[in-house]
Amino acid sequence: MVGPDSKSDGAFTSPAETHTFAGILLDMDGTIVNSTDAIIKHWHKIGKELGVDPSVILQTAHGRRSIETLALYNQSRANWNCHYIEGLIPKEYGADAVEIPGARSLLASLEHINAPWAIVSSGTRALVAGWLDVMSLSHPQNLIVAEDVTVGKPAPECYRLGIDRLGLTTEETRAEVLVIEDSPAGVVAGKAAGCRVIGLATTHSIEQIRESGADWIVQDLRSVTLSSKDVAVHGQIQIEIRNAVQY
């Protein structure tokens, strides 16, 4: 959850700076949408079924694959029936989710210029696609989800796969990929994959995100915009980062 220091007055005061990237990889929950209320209701329901205090489950569930969270409490439930269960969340609790400020505009801009971008989520394909549909948000050509990897965040496998899906396979281009995340586990995964990372202070404190190694910390996606309406000749994307935390 967001700590009290994450919204401190004057914390987000760095002047605007522009950087060039070969591709962009975005997390989903807490980065594009805030489905916290929906997820809380979901895990309360699962907790009752498992006989486990939902508050205990919620302490470690954010940013992790459900199959790994379930394995902590009941190995028999840690299977890919999660596809079906997670796919119901946007349908049952869609009214409880909201967009992260600036997300709709950023995704639409990336889609408009046909930029190389993808969503890399710990959620299942049914869950991620469900939220994009319910919220009427842009769909990327590439979607990396829980079923695509053997180990979830903070392991870097998901982001390495995202880089490969964008066709950015050299060490040089890997270092030019931008990851946008909200959870410490996601930030660690992005850095371990060799990317630069923007951390959003939407679900965790500034200190937690800083300790995870984020290169920049901003309040939300209103601080992350395209500085040019066109992809450059070599497919580079110019991103302006405003009002970041001053390190």
Q: Helix content range of the residues, please?
A: 25-40%
Q: Uncertain regions: pLDDT < 50 for 5+ in a row?
A: 1-10
The Rg value, from CA coordinates, equals 17 Å
Helix-and-strand structural type:
alpha/beta
Number of helical elements: 10
**Number of extended strands:** 11
Q: Enumerate the strands of the largest sheet in spatial order, edge to edge or round the barrel.
A: 6-5-2-7-8-9
Tell me the strand percentage band: 15-25%
Q: What number is the mean pLDDT?
A: 89
The largest pleated sheet is described as:
6 strands, parallel
Helix/strand order, N-terminal first: EEEHHHHEHEHEHHEHEHEEE
Ends: how far apart?
22 Å
Shape: globular
Keywords:
single chain; 247 residues; alpha/beta; six-stranded parallel β-sheet; three-stranded antiparallel β-sheet; 10 helices; 11 strands; 37% helix; globular
Compact summary:
By secondary structure, this protein is of the alpha/beta class. The protein contains ten helices and eleven strands. It has helices at 36-50, 54-61, 66-71, 82-93, 103-112, 125-135, 157-165, 171-174, 184-192, 206-212, and strands at residues 17-21, 23-26, 33-34, 98-99, 117-120, 142-144, 177-181, 196-200, 216-218, 224-226, 237-241.
